[in-house]
Structures are given as structure tokens and as C-alpha cells.
């Protein structure tokens, strides 16, 4: 770490000494014993501008206090059948760990439909996975490796991505904004696999809009990405959709349900769900409850521009698809007419 960076962290620490006691308490839950690492994450997210990083952190701490995020792991989504529906339509899971000890988070972008529960349940579930990752998974990984593990690897499966995904952009923007503003620099690398044409078309227009720091984190792999991913993780830790070319779907596994890290029956989700139920037990009896509402933060202007660009590109591709379909239909009608005339 350079002298300039050390000075920035010291200045950051001094500024944080003056914040309200309630914010200091939630900050302890956030940094899990590693405040310097948290300062560095927020500094990197604001290009080492101390004042901007401090404002970002204070805003995040206020968001945590106002939305009771420290207690979100005591709020189970019940009944279990509702949570199963969330898991079936919000495809996220932990498939294992990299050779360096980082959690490998798999995300089924293409097949996630977000259509079996309210938006608040999906946001609640997402934040619970973030908090469980930061409070349970990473501390255990750090203990096992004998060093701090504070970031993860994400493998994004684009299998099944369609133009209908346009309907999900608003929800995905909410989730991305929550991550960007409150869990910055928690992902070391994003690996994109099974990318169809629609992703490639959008990537061409979105990539130039991303910050250089973000672009460096994103790697688009060929096919299912198995060979490249095996350089950084063992075969057993590969997400199920990366274990063989042409496996087809994020939803299903050919090697049994427990191999599908998206499934509610996967050990990771069983452990997470049981953990939340156990945390809730001392505070109140389990019963049917409404979703845990969290205030949705306003997206960063740059993020809003990216979302708008993706939406515009989807509309363009949809129009192109409709035009191609019309051309094919007219061609067929002309062909049929020609046959009848002859």
C-alpha cells in the first residue's frame, strides 16, 4: 500500500470518528472486525476521493439503520414453499470456493424470471444472501485460509437470455444499485458464460459506458467457460452449468438436485434458510409474515444511463426481430402465391 493510500485511510478514519453512535454500531456489523478493509473498498469505489468515499459510507450506514439491515437475518421468508418459489425464479447460489479461498457465487441471469413473488421478497432474499455471505461465509473462509477473504467470484450464466428480460430491468437495477452503494468492491471478478447473441449485442454498447475499474473485472468466456474456470477452481466447485458443454439450462443439473446450487434443496440454501430461522427464534414465533420492505435507493446517474442503454438496445433488437419476422412472412406469402400462379 502506497503512502498516499495510507494517508487517505487515516483521513477517512478521522472523519468517521465524528459520526453518530448508531452509525458506529452498524459499521461494526458491516466491517466484521476489519474496518481498514471496508475503508479501502469504499475508497476504491470513489477512486480514492476521501470526502466522496466518506459520504458514500455514511449514506450506506444510514440506509442500514433506517431499514434495519442489521436484523434482516432474523426475518425468514415463510412459509418455506414461498421461499422455494423465490429460489426457483431468482437463480443464485454458492457452488464452492476458488483455489484462493474466495466464494464462487453462481447467477442464472437468463432463466431468472422474478415472477412468483413481490419485488420486496426478491430484494429481501438478495440482501439476506449478501449479509450471510459477509457475516458467515467469508469469515469461515478467512478462518480456513488463515487470511482475510473479503470478496467473491461471480459466474453469470446467460443461457436462456431473451428479449423478454426487458421486463426485469427495473428490478435488476434496484438490486444492482443496492449492491453498488452498500456492498461495493465485494466481487473480485465477473465471469460471463453461455452468452447468446442478445448478450453480445448489448455488451458492445454497454462496455464503453463502464468505468475502467469495472471493465477489468468482467471476463466473457467462450461457451460454458469450463476450461478457463478450472484454472482458478476445482471441478467440484464449478457451477453445474459449467461442468459440461451444452448442459443447456441454469435450472437443471444432470448430476442430481444437490449439484444444482440454485435449488432450495442445495446445502447452501438449506444452511442459509435454517440459519435465518434460528436467528429469528429468540425474537418472535415463526408465522406467516409480509415481506421485509427495504427503501430502494436512487441509482447512480451512470448506472441509470447504462440501464437505459440496455433497455434501448433490447427495444432495437426486438424491432429488428419483428422486421425479420415480417420479411420471412412476406417471403413465404410471395412464395406460396408464386406456386399457385404456376
UniProtKB/TrEMBL annotation:
Any coiled-coil regions, as ranges: none
So where does this one cross the membrane? Answer: none
The name this protein carries in UniProt is CRAL-TRIO domain-containing protein
Q: Where is the CRAL-TRIO domain?
A: 79-239
Q: Which InterPro entries match?
A: CRAL-TRIO_dom, CRAL-TRIO_dom_sf, CRAL/TRIO_N_dom, CRAL/TRIO_N_dom_sf
User: CDD domains this protein is in?
Assistant: SEC14
Per the record, the gene is: LOC110707048
Pfam families (alphabetical): CRAL_TRIO, CRAL_TRIO_N
Origin superkingdom: Eukaryota
Taxonomic lineage is: Eukaryota, Viridiplantae, Streptophyta, Embryophyta, Tracheophyta
